[in-house]
Each structure stands twice: as structure tokens, then as C-alpha cells.
Specification:
about 25% helix; alpha+beta; about 150 residues; Immunoglobulin-like; 1 helix
Length: about 150
């Protein structure tokens, strides 16, 4: 009977060691995948959503930039121009009409960086309130897109 008990204890010890190894490996893989998800394809900082016309999302690559604009105004607007990094961007999507709380992505090839390039570009957005034809501009020293350029997918 003692041989059976010893075999059972050895089996439980082996099982415990295997479970510990599996847990460690799973933790390592989880950390590796989450760290690559935050650093790839790019890192960025966004404090842009709270503006009258904000930037909801963006991606800068070696071939161009996608910028998703969002209307935080109380009435529909027409975005007429976007300046990124000192250059008015060329985009077939401009001008674009945005209803209240609507968002729309614009793409431009006139703003891009080589893969891995760190950028910090001031953003200026010109727009018109449709109901009053009042022209406005979102522009201040804290309105930046910041990150590292990604490759094309």
C-alpha cells in the first residue's frame, strides 16, 4: 500500500510542476503579446478629442496619414482644411461635412514619415458652422499628433 501512496504523491508533484511551468510560459507569452500590441505598429498620444472639431484617431505611415475627425460642436460643420506639421494636407475627402457627433476619416499622402520615425506635429483644422456660415479654426499649442511612424500593412 505504501508503494501506491508514494506513486500517487510523485504523480501529484509532477502534475504540480507541469502546471507551474505552463502558468509561467502563459504569463510570458501574454506579456510579450500585450507589449507588442502597445508598441506596434506605432505609439501615439492623443489629447485631441475634446476640441470643437477633434481627432478621434490617426495613423501615420510611410505612405500617408489617416486622420479621423469628430464633430463635438452643437451643430453640423464643414471641415474645409487640415494642417499637420506646418503643411496644409491634400485630401480628396476635403471639404467634409460632419453632423453633430459624426466622425469621418480623411487620408492624405502629403503627410508621411519613414517607418520608425518619431513625430510630433501641430494640427490646425479650419471649419465652417453650416447654419451660420461662421468660419472657425481649431488651433492651439496642445493640439498635436505624436508617435512613431508605422509601416504600411
Amino acid at each position: 500500500m505504501s508503494k501506491r501512496a508514494q506513486t500517487s504523491v510523485e504523480y501529484l508533484i509532477i502534475l504540480a510542476v507541469v502546471l507551474i511551468v505552463v502558468t509561467i510560459v502563459a504569463s510570458i507569452l501574454n506579456v510579450a503579446s500585450s507589449s507588442s500590441a502597445t508598441s506596434a505598429p506605432f505609439s501615439r498620444q492623443m489629447e485631441l478629442v475634446g476640441k470643437d472639431i477633434g481627432i478621434e484617431d490617426y495613423l501615420v505611415t510611410d505612405t500617408g496619414t489617416n486622420i479621423t475627425l469628430v464633430n463635438n460642436e452643437v451643430s453640423p460643420v464643414q471641415v474645409t482644411a487640415v494642417k499637420v506639421g506646418g503643411t496644409w494636407v491634400a485630401s480628396s475627402e476635403l471639404p467634409v461635412r460632419l453632423g453633430v457627433h459624426d466622425s469621418n476619416m480623411i487620408y492624405t499622402t502629403s503627410h508621411n514619415y519613414a517607418i520608425g520615425t518619431t513625430y510630433r506635429d501641430l494640427v490646425v483644422i479650419n471649419y465652417t458652422i453650416i447654419s451660420t456660415s461662421e468660419k472657425r479654426q481649431v488651433s492651439d499649442d496642445s493640439f498635436f499628433i505624436i508617435g512613431v511612424s508605422a509601416g504600411t500593412e
